[in-house]
TrEMBL record:
Organism, scientific name: Marinobacter salinexigens
PANTHER family membership: UVRABC SYSTEM PROTEIN C, UVRC/OXIDOREDUCTASE
Domain UVR intervals: 215-250
Record GO terms (molecular function): DNA binding; excinuclease ABC activity
Protein's recorded name: UvrABC system protein C
Keyword terms of this UniProt record: Cytoplasm, DNA damage, DNA excision, DNA repair, Excision nuclease, Hydrolase, SOS response
Length: 620
């Protein structure tokens, strides 16, 4: 950690909130919070330092994570800046150097790989480079999301255009072709097997390929193939034909046929205490690939706040500053969006926009990013390593004798008491065991009585267990508070089940993720788990999955019922009259709006029948 005396224009106070806040400036700047050992806890920026820092010391409204941070503060240091933009840039530099535990931190700080076209006058090479520099001239293509993406592109370029990839020293000292020439991956410019003019034409086409101009290249190659054929240079024409076929194959493999432009497309997904952020890099209208991040964060934040912190570190916090595109596409409004855009514009020396409301191809890129974020997060949650680590944490949290190998969770879903459905989801040591999921249609209870619904589903499920049918769980979760848990305990007592732990998962007072309360049915002990606990993340995952599955089942049951026409069951309205009504009005919604007199105008509908139809539609 740098010495505090090295910080520019800084003031240091021993922590005393009242006197500290009283003399704090209202100018923009950066604040750093330290613990008793003078280790940095958190770095933040502010348009108004006094207002921002004061918000940490409110009497109410602070999340538990923020309260935990405030409890550790021993001193605060501020650096006044000339503008918000300066504060943003300084904040990111400090986060990078200090790595505070309460800031969002990116684990991957590598610079992106590029393809580099050297500045050789006659025979330039195409090579892999990590990080972009200004030395040596040449042309840079990228950035690509991974080294694999670069190698794949170079492989395609060598197959189609046979551009050399050797370094300058190797190139200058060759007196015969190397193996790349023998396997048809290079035209051997080192020994003059190709003229500078022809080689430059291959370079031109390779450059167009990297810029996403495949159709133009194919058109040029087709013209060249025809000219070679007319000149009876059939071997040369065959080479052009092979290049065209390769390019068409590559073009078919590309999933995005775009309108052009450069953009970074960023999406976020959250579940079970984990955040996944996906970056899709688009250059020249071509999607070069994706990169995923799982940032560590300790303060409860919205998606807009998380993206704001991520963007700041992503573009300003690395060892090598990333290329800033003209457009940064995001799925939600980002906190401090205007300020970030201003800072990015200043850093790039041209306008950079952060946009969410986009159409056409950009909208499809954003949807692709959001799909990738959700899928990557699901894959991460389902990974054996993640599940096993969480299972161990859950065993320790609940003081279980053995690591649970089968867990079941129950939830109830209905619409105003109708079409009640109960879900049972199952997790094992590999995560969700979807083949064992079950849905139960709840019948014969008072609408909206969740206790009766829970009693029915648990009785139906565990009566089979006591009869020796089905698999016995090691742990059962009930999505609900003490009321639902008491019902579960009564059912277990009635069925003589005493060796399966029962845990209730209540949402807590704030009803926010991370604030859940757990209730042990054996001891009635109510306790909370730290929001960053792997055990809580597993419980949240199971609970959320049971909730999702219950809602899905309820909607399927409700929609099945709704597919039956609301005109069915009305005495005197058969298929023919239903058809005439819908044909006349165009749909059930318009029939509902119609008066009795209007309905009576329909062929086959008398005044008395129209009154009956009106009454039936408006009594629902």
């Amino acid at each position: 950690m740098p010495k505090r005396s090295d910080q520019p224009e800084s003031d240091i106070w021993k922590f005393d909130s009242k006197s500290f806040l009283k003399q704090l400036t209202e100018r923009p700047g950066v604040y750093r919070m330290y613990d008793e050992a003078s280790e940095v806890l958190y770095v933040g920026k502010a348009r108004n330092l006094k207002n921002r820092v004061s918000s940490y010391f409110r009497q109410t409204g602070l999340s538990p994570k923020t309260q935990a941070l405030v409890a550790k503060i021993h001193s605060i240091e501020v650096t006044i800046t000339g503008s918000e933009t300066e504060a943003l840039l300084l904040e990111q530099n400090l986060i990078k150097s200090l790595r505070p535990p309460y800031n969002i931190l990116l684990r991957d700080d590598k610079s992106y790989p590029y393809i580099y076209l050297s500045s050789h006058s006659d025979y330039p090479s195409l090579t892999f480079r990590r990080g972009r520099t200004k030395k040596g001239g040449g042309t840079w293509f990228g950035p690509f999301p991974s080294s694999g993406a670069v190698k794949e592109s170079l492989n395609v370029l060598q197959k189609i255009f046979r551009i050399r990839s050797c370094n300058e020293s190797y190139f200058r000292n060759r007196n015969r072709p190397c193996l790349q020439y023998q396997i048809n991956r290079c035209t051997a410019p080192c020994v003059g097997y190709i003229s500078p003019e022809d080689y430059q034409e291959d370079i031109r086409h390779a450059t167009m390929f990297l810029e996403g101009k495949n159709p133009v290249i194919i058109h040029d190659l087709m013209n060249a193939m025809e000219e070679a054929s007319q000149a009876l240079e059939f071997e040369k024409a065959a080479a052009y034909r092979d290049q065209i076929n390769h390019l068409r194959h590559v073009q078919e493999q590309q999933s995005v046929d775009s309108e052009g432009g450069d953009a970074d497309v960023i999406a976020i997904a959250q579940d079970a205490g984990i955040v996944c952020i996906i970056v899709i890099i688009v250059r020249g209208g071509r999607v070069l690939g994706t990169k995923d991040y799982f940032p560590r964060f300790s303060i409860e934040q919205t998606e807009g706040e998380l993206l704001s912190a991520f963007l700041g570190q992503y573009y300003f916090g690395g060892n090598t500053r990333r290329e800033i595109p003209r457009d940064i596409l995001v799925p939600v409004d980002v906190d401090g969006q205007a300020l970030l855009a201003e800072a990015l514009t200043e850093a790039a020396n041209r306008e950079t926009r952060i946009r969410g409301n986009v159409r056409g191809e950009r909208r499809r890129w954003l949807e692709l990013a959001m799909t990738n974020a959700r899928q990557t997060l699901l894959t991460h949650l389902a990974s054996k390593e993640t599940v096993y680590r969480r299972l161990l944490a859950l065993r320790d949290l609940l003081d279980l004798a053995e690591t649970p190998s089968r867990m079941e969770c129950f939830d109830i879903s209905h619409s105003h008491g109708e079409n009640t459905v109960a879900s049972c989801v199952v997790f094992d040591e590999n995560g969700p065991l979807k083949s064992d999921y079950r849905l139960y249609n709840i019948e014969g209870i008072t609408g909206g009585d969740d206790y009766a619904a829970m009693r029915q589903v648990l009785t139906r499920r565990y009566r089979r267990i006591t009869a020796g049918e089905g698999k016995r769980p090691d742990l059962v979760f009930i999505d609900g508070g003490k009321g639902q848990l008491n019902i579960a305990r009564e059912v277990f007592d009635e069925l003589g089940i005493s060796d399966i732990p029962l845990i209730g998962v209540a949402k807590g007072v704030t009803r926010r993720a991370g604030m859940e309360q757990l209730i042990d049915a054996m001891t009635d002990n109510v306790f909370r788990v730290p929001a960053d606990s792997p055990a809580l993340h597993l419980i949240q995952h199971i609970r959320d999955e049971s909730h999702r599955f219950a809602i899905t089942g309820h909607r399927a049951r409700r929609d099945k019922k709704r597919r039956q026409s609301t005109l069915e069951g009305i005495e005197g309205v058969g298929p023919k009259r239903r058809r005439e009504l819908i044909r006349y009005f165009g749909g059930i919604q318009e029939i509902r709006k119609a008066s009795v007199d209007e309905m009576a105008k329909v062929q086959g509908i008398s005044k008395s029948l129209a009154e009956a139809i009106y009454a039936a539609l408006h009594d629902e």
